[in-house]
Sequence to fold (233 residues):
Amino acid sequence: MKKVLILSGAGLSAESGLKTFRESNGLWEEHDVMEVCSASGFRKNPKKVREFYDERRAQLEKVKPNHAHEMIAKLKAEFKDQIFVITQNVDDLLERAGCKDVIHLHGFLPELYCASCGTHFNIAYKKQESTTCPKCKQPFLRHNIVMFEEPAPQYQTLYEALNQSGLFVCIGTSGYVLPVGHFASMCEHSILNNLDADPALDSCFDKVYTQKASTAIDQIALDIRNYLGGNYV
Fold:
């Protein structure tokens, strides 16, 4: 059975109004990333990190899925087990667009996590008001986000999906965090969609759409349908 892996990054959700870290006036310009996004920063000042993620949840509540989120959800519903939907994003916009079985590589912003018992629970867009786990009562409750200096357990799932997929579709990621150019070489066919051209990265892919995700997604959807239908060119 032919399978497709759709991997998305910050560019997918930027059109919905979510700030990315690397864009001009992005989060890295407003914050010291190692203070708010690293395990050592969390140990040093947990209150500052909690407030940072409280702000991110408040921002997330104000935005909506865009056309690219909605089309990915439609493709997943149409082809189910033939499409893996994996994202580097921690937002819930794919889920709010109706997408099922989304794999979040770096965690999920609406959730809190107990480092003691492993419990996850959803607080939606609320502030984190307690550091005590409601299940085990231990004081190790935190945001369910993979921080710098921590392992990302879902990476194993990503590589398993790559090994099963004949078409790799990469949407809205620069390749700074993940070696997406290498991922393209692991699959028979590959498609890249980014807003800006990057000759080094672009050369790793069979097809490149240099435009907004919401603009490119209809052609990407056609490519996916053609691939799964045996008519990919």
